[in-house]
């Protein structure tokens, strides 16, 4: 999976947060499949949220905000993000997590978002393969049952769903996702 070097900490941390909040339901293969789906969703969301190199540089300068509010919304126990093993949490981006949750739970939204990547600076002749996000097979769906459930990640998806829909500006999407 191609990944913007400037956004890789945000993408990796946000995907990890999604997987911890909505873990895979089976063994090692299911975990890998769920991880691929979370990674693809976080990549698309981050590339849409920060479409230019300047946006990514600004994010690197100011930081994404961390996972504290997301943890609270999902009922996770408070974690000290200053502990070395929890430092990754400071790179979680709330908007990217929310948009990724939207993409994972609304297939038409995922398709539209991937198509919108052509308007970003991140493609640069990279071969794109987001099929685990846009065309998950039965095994993918089973592996990420919690991550793709329409209701479980709803509190996270709902945080910034309106801004994603506005960003994509598609009236048909607004009707489908209302």
Secondary-structure topology with pairs:
Blueprint: H1 8-21, H2 28-49, H3 53-62, H4 68-74, H5 94-105, H6 107-116, H7 131-134, H8 138-143, H9 145-148, H10 154-168, H11 171-176
Helix pairs in contact: 1-2, 1-5, 2-5, 2-6, 5-6, 5-10
Structure description:
Helix 5 (94-105) packs across helix 10 (154-168). The protein has eleven helices and no strands. The chain is mainly α. The chain has one domain. 62% of the residues lie in helices and 0% in strands.
Quick structural summary:
Helix content is 62%, strand content 0%. By secondary structure, the protein is mostly helical.
- Give the DSSP E fraction (strand runs of 2 or more residues): under 5%
**C-alpha termini separation:** 31 Å
Order of helices and strands: HHHHHHHHHHH
Describe the sheet with the most strands.
Answer: none
Helix content: 55-70%
Count helical runs: 11
What global shape is seen? globular
List the uncertain runs.
1-5, 171-176
Overall number of structural domains = 1
Helix/strand-derived class? mainly alpha
Count the beta strands: 0
Please tell me the overall pLDDT. Answer: 89
Rounded radius of gyration (Å): 15 Å
Name some characteristics of this structure.
disordered C terminus, 178 residues
């Amino acid at each position: 999976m191609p990944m913007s070097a400037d956004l890789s900490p945000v993408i990796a941390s946000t995907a990890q947060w999604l997987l911890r909040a909505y873990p895979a339901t089976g063994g090692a293969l299911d975990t890998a499949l769920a991880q691929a789906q979370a990674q693809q969703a976080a990549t698309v969301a981050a590339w849409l949220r920060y479409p230019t190199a300047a946006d990514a540089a600004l994010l690197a300068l100011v930081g994404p905000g961390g996972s504290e509010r997301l943890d609270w919304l999902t009922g996770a126990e408070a974690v000290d993000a200053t502990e070395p093993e929890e430092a990754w949490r400071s790179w979680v981006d709330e908007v990217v997590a929310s948009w990724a949750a939207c993409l994972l739970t609304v297939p038409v939204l995922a398709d539209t978002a991937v198509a919108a990547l052509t308007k970003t600076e991140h493609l640069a002749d990279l071969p794109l393969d987001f099929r685990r996000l846009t065309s998950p097979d039965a095994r993918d769906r089973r592996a990420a049952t919690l991550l793709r459930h329409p209701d479980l990640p709803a509190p996270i998806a709902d945080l910034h769903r309106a801004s994603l829909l506005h960003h994509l500006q598609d009236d048909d999407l607004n009707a489908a996702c209302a």
